[in-house]
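Below is one record:
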Amino acid sequence: MATLNPPIIEISGLQLAYPQADGGRTVVLENLDLTLNRGDFVAIVGASGVGKSTLLRVLADLSKPSAGTVTSRLVPRPNSRPSALVFQEARLLPWRRILGNVMFGLEGLGLSKAEQRQRAEAALALVGLSEFHTRWPYQLSGGQRQRVGLARALAVEPDLLLLDEPFGALDAITRAQLQDEVLRIWKASGTTILMVTHDIDEAVYLADRVILLGGKPAHITASHDILDPRPRQRGAALAIERVRSDLGRAMSVEGEGI
């Protein structure tokens, strides 16, 4: 989707390779170019194991590229983090109550305990879990735990929110609820979102741009702007068919499937 918003992430010629025991290398990503503009909602789809999560780890500064450049124009702000990553599993600390789990992400930001608590409570309210702040992780459902993971990420007030198949392990009803929750938060906050998903229907419903990652090594093989106005209907047949057709042609060339 064409946008006047400035780019905040520019990836050029990205390569990521892992060393092998025999001295060789396994190249996961190669010749990957991608630009994210402020306020974008972009979805990445692709076959399992193609390297979608690896790309998010590079952007979260958890993995270093072997070649190419990742230019970030995220401007550090006091008491916040430039980006935050939400995993498929909530990865909560079982020895901390829910409020403490959300406050964990705020440690090291120079906030007082009172300020950490205030920010954590506001984030829990944003995801609809204010009344659960004294509970332990084991007392929550899978969907509720995933909301806590989202609250922990939102509490650090990131400019870039990275979502690694955050709804993949949830039932259909909870999945739909959290999709709408993420859309509401995105609209309210203006945060840029890059989400990995294997579900084309989900990508079309949520994102403004759907990117296919394919090939070995992986690179961007197709990109499709979703021009349907918001709010969108779930399962919008025409938009989904357009994306499936475009991505299907790219996948047939690459010999891959989702």
In short: DSSP finds seven helices and nine strands in the chain.
